């Protein structure tokens, strides 16, 4: 390689690994997506979120349709009335912008806390950037759900049990997904302290909206929330919805059988997910724990029939973590599987992917889930049979 080419390559690598540059790119993605969708008038999810607060002020049902204000219905918990309030009181052009930035910065911070080398953390940023953009176009909270799960793990790693419990309850009371943070319970050292912290935080998140909107109204909201989620499960399990991009959804759509139950898949999934916990002597290895983080992030998505395309930012953080904890030299099979995930899971909803293939095969058969399902099974195999060691993933 010529000296000039070597110098250029060196500069490019330096730029790619510059955290300030990465942060700038992430912020630009948030702002560009916000500007594009806002000026198209395509920010329906944000309108749903905003009106959770507006309707709570008027003591209206948070979970019924308001077709004159937005399409679809709200499925976020009563605590979301408090979380969305700082954004909802702003004009939409500011509220949408700050909402996008808050989600992006939260995930950026969460990833920065991972116990990986500096360059591997940077690689996670680049790997998930396109999938994050898909979520940004939908103004999705799933970006923050991914952050909550990752940050829960890192707080447990740092023995900050209260903050781990805080994050788990935050995610649970907003969108239920946060409950999967309990998967890291076996890695907690002071378990009683952690359990008490969970109880305290659960009480705080349960009661806090009542201070603003009244106990009787919020209690009714919890009942309505449960009802709406039950109804949503039935609606999602169809052959035509934009959701159910999951193990069950893929099987239902490939077999053209809407009556296939979630239960057998969920039971099998939970059993496989939990089996590696039996390897107690492996808990001390960072690689083992990081693989459990990857498994949790992917599991939460592929076994939920509420999963839609923007939900996969959660799973794709798991894919990135899985790939980057592989020991060198990385198997060619794993590299091929990672590229398969980039193409089919991350790129398939975008113009970077052939539209005919997307509309004829990927969307009708929920194939966006396929690479993540395969990777999750590989992770389970590794967690069950791999001999872990103390490979240094933190420095360097």
From TrEMBL:
Membrane topology qualifier: Multi-pass membrane protein
Alphabetized UniProt keyword annotations: Cell membrane, Membrane, Transferase, Transmembrane, Transmembrane helix
Species assigned in the record: Pedobacter montanisoli
Transmembrane feature ranges: 21-38, 93-111, 123-156, 162-187, 194-218, 258-278, 285-303, 309-325, 332-353, 365-385
Any Pfam family: GT87
Compartments reported by the entry: Cell membrane
Family: Belongs to the glycosyltransferase 87 family.
Name under which the protein is recorded: DUF2029 domain-containing protein
């Amino acid at each position: 390689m010529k000296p000039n080419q070597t110098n250029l390559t060196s500069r490019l690598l330096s730029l790619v690994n510059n955290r300030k540059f990465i942060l700038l790119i992430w912020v630009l993605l948030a702002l560009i997506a916000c500007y594009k969708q806002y000026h198209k008038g395509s920010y329906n999810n944000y309108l749903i979120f905003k009106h959770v607060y507006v309707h709570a002020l008027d003591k209206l049902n948070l979970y019924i349709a308001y077709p004159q204000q937005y399409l679809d219905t709200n499925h976020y918990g009563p605590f979301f009335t408090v979380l969305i309030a700082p954004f909802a009181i702003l004009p939409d052009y500011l509220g949408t912008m700050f909402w996008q930035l808050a989600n992006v910065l939260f995930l950026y911070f969460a990833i920065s806390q991972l116990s990986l080398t500096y360059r591997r953390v940077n690689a996670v940023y680049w790997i998930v950037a396109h999938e994050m953009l898909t979520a940004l176009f939908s103004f999705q909270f799933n970006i923050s759900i991914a952050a909550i799960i990752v940050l829960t793990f890192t707080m447990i790693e740092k023995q900050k049990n209260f903050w781990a419990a805080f994050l788990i309850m935050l995610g649970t009371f907003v969108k239920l997904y946060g409950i999967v943070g309990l998967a890291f319970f076996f890695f907690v050292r002071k378990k009683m302290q952690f359990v008490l912290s969970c109880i305290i935080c659960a009480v705080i998140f349960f009661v806090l909206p009542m201070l603003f909107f009244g106990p009787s109204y919020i209690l009714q909201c919890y009942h309505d929330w449960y009802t709406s989620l039950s109804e949503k499960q039935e609606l999602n399990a169809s052959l035509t919805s934009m959701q159910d991009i999951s193990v069950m959804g893929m099987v239902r759509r490939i077999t053209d059988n809407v009556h296939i139950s979630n239960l057998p898949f969920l039971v099998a999934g939970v059993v496989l997910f939990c089996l590696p916990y039996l390897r107690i002597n492996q808990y001390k290895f960072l690689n083992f724990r990081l693989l459990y983080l990857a498994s949790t992030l992917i599991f939460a998505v592929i076994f939920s029939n509420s999963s839609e395309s923007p939900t996969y930012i959660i799973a794709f953080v798991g894919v990135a973590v899985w790939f980057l904890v592989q020991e060198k030299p990385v198997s060619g099979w794993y590299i091929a599987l990672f590229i398969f995930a980039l193409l089919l899971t991350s790129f398939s909803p975008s113009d970077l992917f052939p539209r005919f293939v997307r509309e004829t095969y990927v969307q009708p058969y929920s194939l966006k889930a396929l690479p993540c399902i395969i990777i999750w099974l590989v992770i389970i195999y590794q967690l069950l049979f791999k001999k872990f060691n103390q490979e240094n993933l933190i420095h360097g």
